[in-house]
Amino acid sequence: MDSFSTVIRAASHEQHVEAETSTFMSDLLGGRLGVDAYARYTEQLWFVYEALETGAERLAADPVTGPFIQGELFRLPALERDLEHLRGADWRSGLTALPATRAYADRVRECAEEWPAGYVAHHYTRYLGDLSGGQIIRDKAERTWGFTRRGDGVRFYVFEEIGNPAAFKRGYRELLDGVQVDELEKQRIVAECKRAFALNTGVFRALGEEFPLSA
């Protein structure tokens, strides 16, 4: 029988690929969009991670979510430094969420408050993605817009407290494999992972509409 982490990865593969290959991300990573598009994307991430990390201390006491709440993963401080670099000291005054981003953040917050196992699905899709594909975005941003490696503008993608990302990801998958829920709840977590990717793709779609390439 496949491990739970393997089941999640296989079940959400199609949605994962769809998110990674969205028009917006393809244009962004291809260097066809300006730094303003990157900054706007970073703003949207702030809303998602604010929902993920606000109240995380409370979730640390939950038997299901507790093992996943690890401070070295938290991204809000790094995001805020990036936004100050990208938008200036008053970045909060111009911070706005796209409707798709608001829907995504609202769902994350709903799970955090009412369904701990569902929160795990969002935690997994975000943080393991940051440790994996997120590094591609960082590299592209550094080369395209001249951000200094490990400097402001790309701090979101630099996990300074995780010395060995590959080992960390292995440990994370072991946590998934040992998650304290029954088989029915595991099926619901898998479904929520798919929903998380769909919500993320919705944000990319909205960003693509905001930053269309000229014909």
**What structural class should be given to the helix and strand makeup?**
mainly alpha
Main β-sheet description? none
Report the β-strand fraction as a percent range: under 5%
Q: What characteristic shape results from the CA principal axes? A: globular
H/I helix tally = 11
Mean pLDDT: 92
Computed CA radius of gyration, to the nearest angstrom: 17 Å
Low-pLDDT parts are none
Q: What is the terminal separation in angstroms?
A: 50 Å
Number of strands: 0
Helix content: 55-70%
What is the N-to-C order of secondary-structure elements (H for helix, E for strand)?
A: HHHHHHHHHHH
Question: Could you walk me through the main structural features you see in this protein, from its secondary elements to its overall organization?
Answer:
Helix content is 67%, strand content 0%. The protein is built from 11 helices and no strands. The chain has helices at residues 4-11, 13-20, 23-29, 35-53, 56-59, 76-87, 99-114, 116-131, 134-145, 165-177, 183-210. Helix 2 (13-20) runs parallel beside helix 11 and helix 7 crosses helix 8.
